[in-house]
Write a structure and sequence with these properties.
mainly alpha; 2 domains
């Protein structure tokens, strides 16, 4: 079952009623069975798959935990051992722990790789005739969450879960299964396992966010999608100006689509009294690519940083490479080589995670290279800042920097929609062809994109709405990120002004009714087309 499905509101309404009407001791049981029922809509085979993968992670965590306790018990019993013998014993036994962790994580990743890459590999081997597999909904996010749990148990940063049913609730909690956020066990379970009392303000505030998510998805993203699909389906006739429109509107589409899905997920969780991590922090305010990826899909960025980049950076191979490169290339350059390689490998894996295609691999490499170039030019930027302090501190400089990053990220994302690297390169080249821009001054060009004047106005109003909401929640998002990083309770998006609305129930009811009307009139029930799936469902 997807959020965009007409069944989801009915499913969630019934679940919410049972959740608060039945005794609190049954809340988590209801939530577990509700989550399993939610995923059952994607097929019973997929439900069996995620339960088996949950069992792999659970057994792996338990095995690691038992081994770690056995090591500590042995060390406590052998008090006569000297420091050197203890260190050697711990080092030798650590290999067994690491082997258990590797086996569990590899099994999980093999399941993901089978569904994600088998069709592409079989098509490559079979000369275009590939195996067709139905990719289970949200499998990547689910797999990463389980792998992160096993690694955290191995590192000793969390306490191993001993109940398989409680673990299934953590792994299968339905709002996060569709497209994240990728939750950490130690963070999500602070509120997931706790009993929840009914809070009318929390429910109405969460409903506000859910409806906002549907407006973003069904009204803004799906309207922009019409233009995007029109341009991509006839790429040769939409060169130059068409590519520029695609660059801009696909950025709007994917942002509204993804943040809309997050609003629905976090709003549903808020109605259930459960806190999920915020996954976006105004990414289009970024002045660098690195900052952009700190603000976009935050939980995924954290996952790749903590479980891929850092382990690569401090691995034995990386340390050997560092010593060798320093000896051959000098201290200044040599110390950078391992960081460059770890960064590029991390971004290559990030690209491959998005899909099995050269376009995704190139997308990842381009982001990694851009970040490295920006890092290496940081001293130059600082010198320019000292030389031109008034300009670099001005609002004009910040606006131009934000526009630059927005356009650059939009340009890279065209690899996602065109899918073909040669075609994308030709389309990028057409941006520098003056003849390809001439159609932009024609009314026929804009009417051929699939939207009439009212729909263009609706799309513009939606973009303005998202901008104003961004301004209204900027300070609270900064506080939310700081609190979540420190391990304290996460601040809620838009808590201040939503709280004020909730204190006036009649006004809140009118606003909610208006938002629902917007969804019903201008969303999936408008224009004669059905709501599409969320973009990140495919990942």
């Amino acid at each position: 079952m997807a959020f965009a499905s007409g069944y989801f509101p009915l499913f969630f309404a019934v679940l919410l009623l049972l959740y608060y009407l039945l005794p609190r001791r049954l809340q988590k049981v209801i939530l577990l069975f509700g989550s399993l029922f939610f995923y059952l809509f994607s097929g019973w085979q997929n439900l069996v798959l995620i339960l088996c993968m949950s069992l792999v992670a659970y057994v792996g965590g338990r095995s690691i935990d038992r081994k770690a306790k056995q090591i500590e018990a042995t060390l406590a019993a052998e008090s006569a051992w000297d420091k050197a013998k203890r260190k050697e014993y711990r080092r030798m036994e650590k290999r067994g722990l690491r082997a258990r962790m590797y086996v569990s994580v590899v099994l999980l990743l093999l399941c993901l790789a089978f569904f994600k890459y088998t069709p592409a590999m079989s098509a490559l081997i079979g000369g275009g005739q590939g195996i067709e597999l139905l990719f289970p909904m949200g499998l990547s996010f689910f797999t990463f969450q389980l792998a992160g749990y096993v690694i955290d148990v191995f590192r000793g940063s969390i306490v191993c879960e001993t109940s398989y049913l409680r673990f299934c609730l953590f792994s299968c909690y339905f709002p996060q299964m569709v497209q994240g956020p990728i939750s950490r066990y130690g963070e999500l379970t602070k509120t997931l396992f706790a009993p929840v009392a009914f809070d009318a303000k929390g429910v109405s505030g969460g409903l506000f966010r859910v409806l906002l998510g549907y407006i973003k998805k069904l009204v803004i993203a799906d309207t922009a999608m019409i233009v995007v699909q029109t341009i991509v389906s006839d790429a040769q006739n939409y060169r130059g100006a068409g590519v520029a429109v695609l660059l801009l509107l696909y950025s709007v589409q994917i942002y509204a689509d993804f943040t809309g899905g997050m609003d629905i997920a976090l709003g549903c969780s808020e109605m259930l009294g459960i806190r999920l991590q915020e996954n976006f922090d105004h990414p289009f305010r970024s002045t660098s690519v690195k900052e952009y990826w700190r603000r976009w899909h935050i939980s995924m960025g954290r996952w790749f940083t903590d479980y891929v980049f850092y382990p690569l950076s401090i691995s034995g191979a990386s340390q050997k490479l560092s010593r060798l490169s320093r000896r051959l290339l000098g201290e200044n350059v040599g110390k950078r080589i391992p960081v460059w390689i770890a960064t590029l490998l991390t971004w290559l894996l990030t690209g491959i995670w998005h899909g099995a295609g050269w376009n995704f691999a190139l997308w990842g490499i381009l982001n990694g290279v851009t970040i490295l170039i920006s890092q290496e030019l940081t001293p130059l930027y600082r010198r320019l800042g000292v030389k031109f302090p008034r300009y670099t501190a001005s609002g004009c400089h910040r606006i131009l920097s934000c526009v630059r990053i927005f356009l650059l990220m939009g340009l890279y994302r065209t690899l996602d929609v065109y899918r073909s690297v040669p075609l994308t390169m030709r389309m990028w080249g057409s941006l520098f062809d003056p003849k390809a821009w001439r159609p932009a001054v024609s009314v026929d060009f804009w009417t051929s994109l699939g939207l009439g004047v009212p729909q263009w106005m609706l799309l513009l109003l939606g973009i303005i709405m998202m901008y104003l909401l961004g301004r209204a929640t900027r300070s609270e998002m900064a506080a939310s990120a700081a609190k979540w990083a420190s391990g304290s309770e996460c601040a809620i998006w838009g808590a201040t002004w939503r709280q004020r609305l909730c204190e006036r129930p009649i006004r809140m009811a009118v606003i909610l009714a208006f938002m629902l009307a917007v969804v019903l009139i201008f969303g999936r029930y408008g224009y004669g087309y059905d709501a599409s799936q969320f973009i990140y469902n495919q990942f």
